[in-house]
TrEMBL record:
Keyword Transmembrane part of the UniProt annotation: yes
Keyword line: ATP-binding, Membrane, Nucleotide-binding, Repeat, Transmembrane, Transmembrane helix, Transport
InterPro entries (alphabetical): AAA+_ATPase, ABC1_TM_sf, ABC_transporter-like_ATP-bd, ABC_transporter-like_CS, ABC_transporter_C-like, P-loop_NTPase
Name this polypeptide is given: Putative multidrug resistance-associated protein 1 isoform X7
Length: 365
């Protein structure tokens, strides 16, 4: 009966490498040796059986040789199973290397012959011209035929249900994902024609999840030492962090842990705001920047942005509708397409509009 039990268990175990669709063996799965031991036991059993049946014709030396070889088969089969398992596990590294070598590289970091002027963008006029994009080849479009113009200095709120394509527009502005069709121009310059570095360093974003690095507070505010301490302190004052930093023993040299773990979520977001104030480009993107902070910090950030970026183009992806009620216009996305693009006042007058229904759900009307 033990042979039957082992055989049944082995039949399940030998199918394990094929259980994953991609054929990869989990790295923490130990090779099963039940089947080799079962086969070895069968060979040993038959070697002993034939020795007994042919005891009159087979010499003792030949019997001993056959049984000892049969016993060694188990060890050999176990070794073979372990080697096969190791190959299956280690081949994952080869697959990863192959994947990296076949991954499409980003565009050129800098294109010397197509560098924009140093003062670009001067006005902050952003135009989407029949713009569509997808996250990678073969997937559905996440943004479809976006065609709109944002004038310099306008405050635009972008709203929509989950999956409407709001954050995809942000990724498109910074060319994290490239266009499937159409283009985006900023002050009449097609951003797909210039280097990535020129695009990304001329725009500023305050993300939903603040990014801080292990190092000093000053390094997090000004990683490339482009500004003097006076400007850094001015940015901290405008972002309501001056009193906090002044109270630290090390001041600007205060050590920030990885990810800013020794700062509160609100303080981390204000550090990102200070970083944006320090750079102060003509186009500012807020990607649900206040979604994870309390209402008091939210008010501080909104007041600072209204005051310090009054002449800049501000594109706000809104989680809380009240943060974009004073926007110049509101762009409503649904399934990657523009459904409405009007001032909040006009949209609220139309009780059939998507924006009105969202405002009603939020308790604003």
């Amino acid at each position: 009966m033990s042979f039957v039990a082992n055989a049944l268990q082995a039949s399940v175990s030998t199918r394990a490498p094929r259980m994953k669709e991609n054929g990869q063996l989990p790295s923490n799965r130990k090779p099963d040796t039940t089947a080799p031991e079962f086969i070895g036991n069968i060979l040993t059993f038959f070697a002993a059986l034939f020795a007994v049946l042919g005891r009159d014709t087979i010499s003792g030396g030949l019997v001993g040789l056959s049984v000892s070889y049969a016993l060694s088969v188990t060890q050999t089969l176990n070794w073979l199973v372990r080697m096969t398992s190791d190959v299956e596990t280690n081949i994952v590294a080869v697959e990863r290397i192959k994947e990296y070598t076949e991954t499409t590289q980003e565009a050129e970091w800098e294109i010397p012959e197509k560098k924009p002027p140093e003062y670009w963008p001067e006005h902050g006029v952003v135009e989407f011209n029949k713009y569509s994009t997808r996250y990678r080849e073969g997937l559905d479009l996440v943004v479809k035929d976006i065609d709109c113009k944002i004038s310099g200095g306008e405050k635009i709120g972008i709203v929509g249900r989950t999956g409407a394509g709001k954050s995809s527009l942000t990724l498109a502005l910074f060319r994290i994902i490239e266009a499937a069709s159409g283009n985006i121009t900023i002050d009449k310059i097609d951003i797909s024609k210039i280097g990535l570095h020129d695009v990304r360093r001329r725009l500023t974003i305050i993300p939903q999840d603040p990014v801080l690095f292990s190092g000093t507070l000053r390094m997090n505010l000004d990683p490339f030492n482009l500004y003097d301490d006076e400007k850094v302190w001015s940015a901290l004052e405008h972002s309501h962090l001056k009193d906090f930093v002044s109270g630290l023993n090390a001041g600007l040299q205060h050590e920030v842990s990885e990810g800013g773990e020794n700062l509160s979520v609100g303080q981390r977001q204000l550090v990102c705001l200070a970083r944006a104030l320090l750079r102060k480009t003509r186009v500012l993107v807020l990607d649900e920047a206040t979604a994870a902070v309390d209402l008091e910090t939210d008010d501080l950030i909104q007041q600072t942005i209204r005051r310090e970026f009054a002449d800049c183009t501000v594109i706000t992806i809104a989680h809380r509708l009240n943060t974009i009620m004073d926007s110049s216009r509101v762009l409503v996305l649904d399934k990657g397409e523009i459904r409405e693009f009007e001032s909040p006042e006009n949209l609220l007058k139309d009780k059939k509009s998507i924006f009105y229904s969202m405002a009603k759900d939020a308790g604003l009307v």
